[in-house]
Amino acid sequence: MKTDLPQSFRRLEYRPPNYTFGQVELDIALDPARTIVKSRLQVLPGKSYETGAPLVLQGQELEFVSLRINGDAHRHFELTPETLSIYSLPNDGKDPFVVEIICICVPEKNTSLMGLYVSNGNFFTQCEAEGFRKITYFLDRPDVMAKFRVTLQARETECPVLLANGNLLSTEKLPNGWHSAVWEDPFPKPSYLFALVAGKLDCIEETITTGSGARKLLQIWVEPHDLKKTRHAMDSLIASIRWDERRYGLELDLERFMIVAVSDFNMGAMENKGLNIFNTKYVLAQPETATDIDFANIESVVAHEYFHNWTGNRVTCQDWFQLSLKEGLTVFRDQEFSADQMGTQSGRAVKRIEDVRTLRQLQFPEDAGPMAHPIRPDEYQEINNFYTVTVYEKGAEVVRMYQTLLGVEGFRKGMDLYFKRHDGQAVTCDDFLAAMADANHCDLTQFKNWYSQAGTPRIKVEERYDAPQNQYHLTLSQSIAPSPSQSEKQPFHIPLKVRLLTPADDQVEQLLELKAEKQTWTFDNINERPVLSLNRNFSAPIRLDFSQSEADLLALFSSDDDAFNRWESGQKLAMQMILENRLPDAELIAAYRDILLDPELDPAFKELALTLPAETYLYEQCTSVDPQQIFKSRRAFRRALASSLRLEWAALYQQMQTPDGFKPDAISAGKRALKNLALSMLLDADALIWAPMAVNQYQNADNMTDRYAALAGLVIHGVNAAKECLEDFYQRFAGDALVLDKWFALQSSRPPVDGAEQTLTDVYRLREHVAFKMNNPNRVRSVIHAFCMNNPASFHQADGSGYAFWAEAVLALDPINPQVAARLARALDRWRLFAQPYQGKMHAYLEEVAANKTLSADVREVITKALGN
Ligand code: B3K
Ligand code: ZN
């Protein structure tokens, strides 16, 4: 029996804090090797105060210096590697008292990028979820909300800029070349929203007037040489501020709002109050260095973090199990914002398809695997492992279902009531549901199951057309497979948009609410057999178990008025044929051709409709995956599509040119996407003939979207010129870290090419490249994660060589950055789904990693759950 079982945290064991804080004052003297942190905490009894209870603060990797209470040195305390427990409190802690602590941390040694760290000589923090405890001893939990006043001190030549949350109160010159700045945040906040930034940075700024007439200062801070790449982020921020006022009546509440970009960052960005810190990847953009996808991602991440100011910061989470309360809701909000930014109805549909594609490629596998959890998990060992696609993307789908059930206005009423009740509080997902239910006077009890049950519901569809009665009967039954620690499941409340497509075109869209395990609906006055269009616009995050005939699917693909379902039926047809190792038949080719030639359809939609389902999505349709077989079958299908439509591809390549200078708007981006799909298809049809055109595009492009697409086409199709162009690309952009990331990622994610060396050989070489850095997460992700997670056919080699690479990389990364290592560790989650020899080999390498005694809690949890013990 193991004695060192990792600690689990359980949702139902939540207790309010026994102490809380009023005012918090921090005085931080920044030094990379020895930062001195003085804190002054006003302590009050908390909701579950018990007489005489010690005050237990969290602290990690800190050097403790001193403790005072109400001004006097205090000796009654105990230190462990994770806590500082203080005993013998004045009057047993019944009345407010002041604790002063001095401690030291070492930012330059901090490679975990949690807490205070150094990146390119500048100081940054990341506190969510539990990083503040690496800066000072604290009640580091989201339900302790305090007002912060922060004094930063540093050497002025090294750190001319000193930033923290809220408003700047004063600055001062100090002796010996030091200076200081005092910042005050007027809003109480939990420690996870604390931030400071200090260093050599420069900003662009704008002043705007919000709806109520208040003036606000907006700033984007970057390293000085990146200033020219900040305009798009600023425009995105202003658009987000306007949108939140319009759509939800929510205004910016601070006098200033800052975004800072940093190149060493564990994730995308962080919504610290008034001082958002971003991965450079989601701030910096110029047409020459960023693709259309980068531009769109920046817009959506800037919006996401800005929207957190209300959904997350003003109303925050009681505990980390409630993470989806802020994340699911905020993802939903950023999805809606981006959809509105598309400018047209068809643009909205394109955005919806992209979001659903992400959900199904990433979240469905998670929900069916060893890490499956409800959007509100019941247990975790390491909270960092629960910033998942389930909490975020499925969480957003759950929020979207409220809007589908209650209508846009009803949803808005619920949001208004939520803020009215909970502004300034730390609350739960139940509180959100109650606000939605109460504002709309409806009963959402059964809807709660979406929060408590993991797994993707499967809906079986049975239809019967009764010609003599002119009736159509639709029977839907829901079921949900067991998941780890949940075997019995209750039926969900599922909103399903449906429309019967009839030759007379006389049926309207309806909303069916499936609540029972099995329900039947009867439609009257249906004069001919209809074609069913179900789960329109993906109204619920479910799988349909429906053997719709290929003829019906083709009909939907040609003419469903719901753009999502139109796309979906094409995906289903392609998926079935690929899995049966068939090539597209004449009818399907004709349908594809009609879509490509239809002048009414958006280029962006055409691009999506002609892009085949991802390999990882195909895996999920199988019970025993042969990854090489799926790769081959998918490639053959794509080649057939490429050759049969070669004339159309060639024509589109010309028609979709955007000659009048680069604009990142949705229409131009859609044209480029379709043009570059055409290029890639032409290369698939005949690489030798079309390579010169790709090389020409590579050399003459005036923007990164086109240059990168041409390069990718050459690399992926194994064209000789690829080598030279790769070298040229490296030379051109050697000084630009984000573009170099693209260069690395492209080579690591190159699928197998006939007759070429395996990609893994390249990846080993890239790991030795001078520009490869194991402590920069973006670079690591562009080489290691790109290979293990975005290149399935190269990764899943029958000899297990891909898995050997994975195991070695996980173990090498873990001591440097456990969060980034744990993410990589998840690449083998679905090992049980694979056929032999893959399954056995994956199992062996999982065991090999598990055998390591010094794994971080992050990696340990992922590996233990994958092995299922
Ligand atoms: N809230 C942060 C994520 C923090 C992740 C901590 N491991 C970014 C976001 O969702 O907006
Ligand atoms: Zn978020």
Write the SSE topology.
Blueprint: E1 9-10, E2 19-29, E3 35-45, E4 55-58, E5 63-69, E6 72-73, E7 77-79, E8 83-86, E9 97-105, E10 115-119, E11 122-126, E12 146-155, E13 161-164, E14 167-173, E15 178-189, E16 196-199, E17 202-209, E18 215-222, H1 231-248, E19 256-262, E20 269-270, E21 275-279, H2 292-307, E22 316-317, H3 323-341, H4 345-368, E23 379-380, H5 389-422, E24 426-427, H6 429-439, H7 449-452, E25 458-466, E26 471-479, E27 494-501, E28 510-514, E29 518-523, E30 531-534, E31 543-545, H8 550-559, H9 563-579, H10 586-597, H11 603-609, H12 615-619, H13 627-644, H14 646-655, H15 666-685, H16 687-700, H17 704-716, H18 721-733, H19 737-748, H20 759-767, H21 777-790, H22 792-795, H23 801-813, H24 818-825, H25 838-850, H26 857-867
Structural descriptors:
869 residues, eight-stranded mixed sheet, 26 helices, binds zinc ion
Q: Which regions are unreliable across 5 or more consecutive residues at pLDDT < 50? A: none
End-to-end distance: 12 Å
Q: Note the total helix count.
A: 26
The percentage helix is 40-55%
Give the overall shape, derived from the CA principal axes: globular
Radius of gyration: 28 Å
- Rounded average pLDDT: 97
Question: Which structural class best describes the helix and strand composition?
Answer: alpha+beta
The hetero molecules present are: (3S)-3,7-diaminoheptanoic acid, zinc ion
Work out the oligomeric state of the chains in this entry: single chain
Give the biggest beta sheet. 8 strands, mixed
Strand content: 15-25%
- Going across the biggest sheet, name each strand in turn: 6-5-9-3-2-12-15-14
Number of strands: 31
